[in-house]
Structure formats: structure tokens, C-alpha cells
């Protein structure tokens, strides 16, 4: 062996020895590797590409102090930590906190996943029951509603009575109204007992829509509800809305019945009126999203309706989707071939993977949604069980419309720290936050979802950059017409918000 | 423009047109892409590299029919689906099924994550209370135990009475024993009410260990318990065990107190005896795993004990770890520097990330465990929130010791379909299944964990290949001395099991 070789071998050996047995170097090696992994994780997180200005950094300090107080207290006293409990137990406590008020004031960009008649609080529906010309047919515990200029001729097992008469002869108007309020939401005192499994809560949830339909499809009520939706969204820092609708037939006092296309037109008219009154709003579009649990013939009708709307209101239609509990409805694989012809004219924005089944049709709807070229995925809750699909949505830039509170309330996850959104954010997947049907569970339009996602689901390290990223994403992944202008305007409003927070944080107290 | 260019452009254009607007081709494109994604997912799944023989394929058909009957019924009737309920509600129903009996009989390789005094059912502990020389000191509802040749001189607020006397003057021995059984497990009728948060269940869990310690650290009881553990493991198709122990001081009737090293030696002696009686067993090793919630001085003592055991029983010591609730204990980052010197002599097999916090120390223990060069990770529940760490364990081939039932019972996850194991298996991460402390929650040594992971957590598509992979992994990632021989023997036993199943599947009915 040559001397050179011996020297090289010896040096390698000594180096290896030093690496493994010198305790000081071992600690150095461990610390370097630890830091490397830690930084790598931070860099992958959603929002890590956002660079904060000095002012934003100051605002971040305020926000993180509030967030981490909640997290650290929960870590020490899990009993204090609300987010491992049911949403109904803590939702009203949240609204009373400084962090909530800050998040409520924060510009949030767009609301991209919300179902038209489930957005507003029960009080709005109650308001409609005070309107003239409302009749009710009560059979045991069931109430049917109908607006009519005269006593309705529709069959009633008992008889149609004017709502006013029923209410004011009830003896206790307050109790009468609070009973109604309970019918106009799924909030209950003991959700564990009343909703023992997912189908029970979905059944109550579906009943909400069925029972409110005759109230809300009265054309003036329909238009009132949408107008108020836009107003409430605007008040929560939302500048643009994409609303999903099954587009039911509306009716009026003259007994006229309207088509789905008319219903879409009615939305467009309300929007035009709203934009006149609030020109700082950035508009709304419609996602036509009829029921998935229907026959092939009905799907064929949906296609025609979608095409008609596209022809009449090309800029107003954002896309096409199907709604209804995926576990019980028809899988995309079954109904997709029939709607594929729509792809040339409009976006698909499909619900997929709103389930905790794995390897069943509702789970695999995500594969179909992607293969069908969906622009975004509604929910995508199941996607973290599909590493190849996570790659795919990242590469194709398909946004996931995540609705944390909805998933918790509708029985997918008990402790929201187990919500797959954590993994999605950690991977830096294209995520937008939304709220699905916040009114049905007594949540605000979008703020509860931001609070829960930010404080309870995201990493303790996730900060203002995540919040800003989520808000910007909602515009970026929308189908808004002048996206650049909207994003620019968002920055202006964001800067103003940071200014307000820095000027007087105690105004949020 | 040259003709050639025009032709190329035209052809490209026509091709693009055909791609997007010919409905038949659109459907073809969608179906191809769908199939491609679906196959890609299947190929990434844990177990996809296993090729089944014809006989295994037949056995697979039997097993999948049983599995999918459960899954499909649950999909249609979520109320029937046990695995979204608490483990205590369904554990005894499982053992009475054909699939359970098949899984119980199936060779499972190694048991790699189990804590020595929490493995056997409460009945084993009860058995020990029937032994001679046991005294009890009862103060209100508390019972203290002590084996002693004479009435113990240790302080007792009331007085030490022979257990036999207490039991046979209790008036109702059956009730007396069933009261004891309740003390020797954490199983309760209404877990939601009794364990409202994670600390409550951990407190009851810790109390189990505290209260049984004086019973089980009686040297003959200690040796009996370990011998029976090995026997029970062997009966469930386990051929090799790595047991975690805090190595408490043992005592005997003569009042002698033994050191931790003696305790390790006592395990080694029991093992030697067991191997003589059951030469078909493949042995056991010790993971020395003392408490994490201790002072620096105590950690220093741990290091010395570990080194002494390594010197005296080099082949018996599999590695070093810390135990105790991670959220409350000291983070690895804090205690690691002190134990780093052990790395040259033994494996680290650290608990890490047994938590649903994200961005807190218990979560980030995973980073430290990896940076410290851990061979395997105990639990790693939180890892799916860390994409970079998932890459790291895959590249470094660090196995995750997953304990689904334990995580459910100890309050990390309610519906096991949300358990991160689903994501780990989907990603093909190196996973081994284990059971942590099955006796404490009335589970079998390993079969409940296999059942729950296979039927409720894994994809509906996951089949016998997953089961075989999990079993083989447990040997592959172990520190067993002659790994090749053990893996070869496993294949022989596996083939016999497949033979038994095919010969008479109804024997499992």
C-alpha cells in the first residue's frame, strides 16, 4: 500500500471517528441537522413566500401574541382548548375575543364555496316569516310555508292559516319565534346525543334546506336573502363571492313559477342592484350546482340549463358542480360522461372527497374531478390519503376549497387538529378557506372558519403570512373578471387594515 | 408563411380541437387519466411490492370478502360502522368475528412497541392478587399492595391486612374481584363522560401503572408477567418481541431491593427459560425507556444504567428511549444532548410526535428524533403534518411504530378513519403496527390493532399484501439478531397459515 493511500485512509477513519465519538461534534451535527429540517418545514408551509413589511411584522406580533396565548394555554390545560370540543360549544365564545374581531375586520378576498340558502343566520329566515302574505299549514310538528295573495289552494291536511294569525294567537310570540329559529338551523344543545352518526346530522341538515325552500323560493324573499348575503359578506371583509345554487324554481304572489334560468337571472338582477348601492364591491358569480342523486335524464336537463345560462349570462356563470352528500349520491365516475360536453364552455368546480371513507366512491371522486379537469375541488377532505393526487393538484394548480367548520359540524372530524387542512398547509397546497353553509350552524360568513383554521389547525408557527396567503389565494383561484385589479385593490385594503390595527389595537378589544 | 408551417399549424390546431371538442375523445382522455392516477395511487401504497402466489390470491379473496362486507355495510349504514365509535364500544364484538380469528391466527412477525407492564389483560394482574404473602393497606378508596413474609412494616394509615383475609371476608368474592379488575384497566362504560380531555385519560392511564407497580415489581410476579407476555404473544402469531421498560427496582420477600440492571437481568433469565420451553420462539430484546419528566441528574443516571446493561447483556439491549406523555414531559431537544453519548453503543428508538398539537415541542420531537439518528420512531402520529420529515423517514428508512388503538383510547383521534396511519400507508412509509399497552384497554396483544388498521384505517383496496408487508416490516425493522433466518422462518409460517385458511376457512367461523 502506498503512503498516500495510507494517509487518505487514516484521515477518513479519523474523520469518521471524530464524527461519531466526539460528543461536542455529535451535538453540533445534531443541532445542524435539526435546524436544517426545521427550516425546510417552514419553507414548505403555505404562506412562506409572503414577505412582510415592517408594519405587517408589527401587526404580526400583535396577532401571534393573541394566537399563541390560546395555543399555549391549551397545551398546558387541554380542558381549556375549545377546538377539541364541538363547534356549538365554543362558537359564541370566539366572537367575543380580540383576535376574532381582528380577523373579522381583516380583508379576506373572496368567498368561493358557499351554498346560497345556507349562508345567513337563522334570524334572517325568521325575518321573512314576518312578511305579508305568508300562510302556514301545520300538521303535528311539521310546518309548511307558502306565500300567497289568497288562502292557498294547495292541499293541507289541516288548513292554511295566515302566519300573522298563528304567531299572534300563540300566546307567547318570543317562544314562538325561538321555536322557529331552532328549525332554521341545526344547532342543538347536545350534538353528541342528537347526531350520533354522520347520516343523522346530514338528515337534519338536508331538512333545513327542504323546510326553508318554500320560504326562500318566494321571489322577493330569494332576492332579499341574496342581497343580504352580499351585504353580510362585504361587512366581513369579502370583496367577491362565487355562490353555488341548485337554482330552484321561484314563485310569486300571482302564482307564477319561474325556471332555473330565471332564478339565475334574478341573482344577476340583485347583484346589479347591490353593485349600484355598494360600488366598492367586486361582484359575484354563480356556480350552477344541482343535486347529484338524480337520474341520467335529469342530469341531461342540468346540462341544458347550464348551457342556457352560459348563453344568456356568459360572464355571470363561474362554473358547474353537483351537490348533496357524496357518500349517498352518485359518484362523478357515473355522471361525468354526461356533463363532459360542458367542459368546452365553462369551468367544472366539483365537490369531491368530502368524506372520511377511503377507497370508496366518495373518496375517489377526487380522482374523477381531477381527470375531468376541475378548476377547483370543493372540500377535498380525503386528499391527504392520496399522495399522488396531492402532487397533481399542486402541479395543476387546482385549489382546494376547505371548509373546516362545516367538516367538523357535519361529522367528519371531532378534534379539528386532526383536520387534513393541517397537512395541506404544511405541503403548501393551493388552499382557499371557505364556510359552506355557515348560517345553518350559526357561524359568521367566513370569520369563524379563519379563526379555527389559523389558531387550531395551522402550526403554532403559522402567522400573518398564512392569513394573507389564504386571502390572496381566494382571489387568485377565483374566476373573477378583472383579477389583477381585484388583487391590487386587495393590497390597498390590506395595507389599510394593517394601519388600523397598528394605530389602535385596543379598538378591537 | 411556408406551406409546411401552415400544415403543421393546421394539424396542431385540428388535433387540439379534436382533443377538446370531440365528446368521445374527451371521455377517452378522461378515462385514461383517471385510470393512470388510480394506478399510480395503488402502486404507492404500502404492500404494493408484495406479489401474491396463487394460494395467497385465494386466501386474499376470502379475507377481502370479509373486510369489504364490513366496509360496504358501514358506507351504507354509518350507524353500523363501529370504528367511528369508541374502542370500548366495539372491542368485544370484533373478537367474535371470522375475520378477527383469521387475523389472530396470522403470523405477525414482531411486537416492537409495547410497554412491559401494560401488555396483559387485567385478569393476569388479578391472578397475582391470589398469590401467597400479599398484604393490602386500604385507605378509603385507595388500595396499596405489598408482598411480604410478615406483616409489612411500611407505614399504613389504617393497617396492613393479608389479601386473602380481605377477599374472603368481603362477603362477595366475585364482586370483590370485579372491582379489582376495574382498577387494573382503564376500560369504562361511558368514556366520553369519564375522559372529557386527553389529560384525564392519561391521568387514569398513569394511575394504572402507579397502582400496579407494587404488585408487579414483586420479583416472582415480574417474572410471571413477562413469561406470560411472551406466551400470549407467541399464541397470537408473534415470533419476537422488543419490550420497553422503565426497569423499576424489584423486591422480594426477604426485603431485598434490586437495581435496574438486575431488573434487566431478570428479564433475560425469564427469556432464557421461555426459550427452553418454546424453542420455536425467536426471542426478545429490551428497550430501556425511563421517564422523560425528570431532572438532568436523573437523565445522567439513566445514561449510566444504559451503559451498564449494554456491557452486561450486549445482545439483549435493543436500544434506548424515554417514556411518558410527551405534551407534559421534557422535549427531546432539552434532554438529547445528555444522552447523545449513548449513540456510539446502542440504538435510539425514540417516542416522538404522539400528539395532535402542531408546532409545539411534542410535535417537534420528531425532528429531534430524526436528527439524533433514531432507528425507529415510537408513534410518530404527528408526522403527516410534516412533509419534509415524511421524506426523511422514507429516505433514511426509519420505521414508524404505529399504535392505532392506543391513539384512539388515549384521546388523539375519535374516528380512526382520521388516523394519520392512512396517509402513512398511502405514501408507502416504513410502518410497523404495534399495540403500546393493550392490556390496559382490554385488547389482545396485537390482533385488535391489525383488525382496526386493516379494516377501518387502510383503503378499501388494501389487501393481504398490506397485511404481509406489515408483518414482514416488523421483523425487517427490528434489531433481531439473525434477521435473515427470522424472515425465512416467517415465510414458512405464513405459507402454513395460508394453507390452513384454504384448507378449511370455516374453522375460523
Automatic annotation (TrEMBL), chains A, B:
<dbReference type="InterPro" id="IPR001365">
    <property type="entry name" value="A_deaminase_dom"/>
</dbReference>
<protein>
    <recommendedName>
        <fullName>Adenosine deaminase</fullName>
        <ecNumber>3.5.4.4</ecNumber>
    </recommendedName>
</protein>
<dbReference type="GO" id="GO:0006154">
    <property type="term" value="P:adenosine catabolic process"/>
</dbReference>
<keyword id="KW-0964">Secreted</keyword>
<feature type="domain" description="Adenosine deaminase">
    <location>
        <begin position="200"/>
        <end position="486"/>
    </location>
</feature>
<dbReference type="InterPro" id="IPR006331">
    <property type="entry name" value="ADGF"/>
</dbReference>
<dbReference type="GO" id="GO:0004000">
    <property type="term" value="F:adenosine deaminase activity"/>
</dbReference>
<keyword id="KW-0479">Metal-binding</keyword>
<dbReference type="GO" id="GO:0046103">
    <property type="term" value="P:inosine biosynthetic process"/>
</dbReference>
<dbReference type="InterPro" id="IPR013659">
    <property type="entry name" value="A_deaminase_N"/>
</dbReference>
<feature type="signal peptide">
    <location>
        <begin position="1"/>
        <end position="18"/>
    </location>
</feature>
<dbReference type="GO" id="GO:0046872">
    <property type="term" value="F:metal ion binding"/>
</dbReference>
<keyword id="KW-0378">Hydrolase</keyword>
<dbReference type="InterPro" id="IPR006330">
    <property type="entry name" value="Ado/ade_deaminase"/>
</dbReference>
<dbReference type="GO" id="GO:0005615">
    <property type="term" value="C:extracellular space"/>
</dbReference>
<dbReference type="InterPro" id="IPR032466">
    <property type="entry name" value="Metal_Hydrolase"/>
</dbReference>
<comment type="similarity">
    <text>Belongs to the metallo-dependent hydrolases superfamily. Adenosine and AMP deaminases family. ADGF subfamily.</text>
</comment>
<feature type="domain" description="Adenosine/AMP deaminase N-terminal">
    <location>
        <begin position="13"/>
        <end position="103"/>
    </location>
</feature>
<dbReference type="Pfam" id="PF08451">
    <property type="entry name" value="A_deaminase_N"/>
</dbReference>
<dbReference type="Pfam" id="PF00962">
    <property type="entry name" value="A_deaminase"/>
</dbReference>
<keyword id="KW-0732">Signal</keyword>
Amino acid at each position: 500500500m502506498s503512503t498516500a493511500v495510507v494517509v487518505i485512509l487514516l484521515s477518513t477513519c479519523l474523520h469518521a471517528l471524530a464524527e461519531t465519538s466526539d460528543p461536542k461534534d455529535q451535538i453540533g451535527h445534531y443541532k445542524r441537522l435539526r435546524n436544517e429540517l426545521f427550516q425546510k418545514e417552514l419553507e414548505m408551509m403555505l404562506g412562506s413566500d409572503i414577505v412582510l413589511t415592517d408594519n405587517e411584522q408589527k401587526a404580526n406580533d400583535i396577532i401571534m401574541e393573541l394566537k399563541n396565548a390560546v395555543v399555549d394555554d391549551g397545551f398546558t390545560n387541554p380542558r381549556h382548548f375549545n377546538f377539541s370540543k364541538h363547534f356549538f360549544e365554543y362558537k359564541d365564545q370566539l366572537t367575543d375575543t380580540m383576535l376574532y374581531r381582528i380577523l373579522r375586520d381583516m380583508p379576506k378576498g373572496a368567498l368561493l364555496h358557499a351554498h346560497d340558502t345556507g349562508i345567513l343566520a337563522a334570524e334572517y329566515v325568521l325575518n321573512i316569516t314576518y312578511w305579508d302574505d305568508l300562510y302556514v299549514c301545520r300538521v303535528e310538528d311539521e310546518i309548511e310555508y307558502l306565500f300567497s295573495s289568497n288562502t292557498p289552494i294547495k292541499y293541507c291536511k289541516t288548513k292554511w292559516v295566515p302566519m300573522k294569525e298563528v304567531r299572534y294567537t300563540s300566546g307567547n310570540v318570543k317562544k314562538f319565534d325561538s321555536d322557529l329559529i331552532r328549525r332554521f338551523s341545526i344547532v342543538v344543545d347536545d350534538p353528541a346525543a342528537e347526531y350520533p352518526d354522520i347520516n343523522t346530522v346530514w338528515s337534519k341538515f338536508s331538512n333545513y334546506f327542504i323546510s326553508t325552500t318554500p320560504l326562500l323560493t318566494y321571489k322577493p324573499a330569494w332576492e332579499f336573502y341574496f342581497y343580504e348575503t352580499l351585504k353580510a359578506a362585504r361587512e366581513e371583509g369579502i370583496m367577491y363571492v362565487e355562490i353555488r345554487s341548485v337554482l330552484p324554481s321561484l314563485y310569486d304572489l300571482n302564482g307564477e313559477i319561474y325556471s332555473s334560468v330565471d332564478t339565475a337571472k334574478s341573482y344577476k338582477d340583485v347583484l346589479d342592484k347591490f353593485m349600484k348601492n355598494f360600488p366598492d364591491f367586486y361582484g359575484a358569480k354563480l356556480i350552477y350546482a344541482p343535486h347529484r342523486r338524480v337520474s341520467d335524464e335529469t342530469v341531461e336537463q342540468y346540462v341544458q340549463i347550464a348551457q342556457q345560462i352560459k348563453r344568456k349570462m356568459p360572464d355571470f356563470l363561474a362554473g358547474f358542480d353537483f351537490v348533496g352528500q357524496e357518500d349517498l349520491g352518485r359518484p362523478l365516475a357515473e355522471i361525468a360522461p354526461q356533463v363532459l360536453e360542458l367542459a368546452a364552455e365553462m369551468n367544472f368546480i366539483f365537490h369531491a372527497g368530502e368524506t372520511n371513507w377511503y377507497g370508496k366512491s366518495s373518496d375517489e371522486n377526487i380522482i374523477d374531478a381531477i381527470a375531468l379537469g376541475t378548476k377547483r375541488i370543493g372540500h377535498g377532505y380525503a386528499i391527504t390519503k392520496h399522495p399522488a393526487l396531492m402532487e397533481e393538484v399542486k402541479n395543476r394548480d387546482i385549489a382546494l376549497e376547505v371548509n373546516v367548520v362545516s367538516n367538523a359540524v357535519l361529522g367528519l372530524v371531532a378534534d379539528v387538529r386532526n383536520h387534513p387542512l393541517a397537512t395541506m398547509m404544511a405541503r403548501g397546497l393551493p388552499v382557499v378557506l371557505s364556510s359552506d353553509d355557515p348560517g345553518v350552524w350559526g357561524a359568521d360568513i367566513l370569520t369563524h372558519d379563519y379563526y379555527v383554521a389559523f389558531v387550531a389547525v395551522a402550526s403554532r408557527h403559522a402567522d400573518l403570512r398564512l392569513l394573507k396567503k389564504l386571502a390572496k389565494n381566494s382571489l387568485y383561484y377565483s374566476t373573477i373578471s378583472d383579477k389583477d385589479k381585484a388583487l391590487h385593490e386587495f393590497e390597498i385594503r390590506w395595507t389599510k387594515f394593517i394601519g388600523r390595527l397598528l394605530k389602535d389595537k385596543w379598538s378591537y378589544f
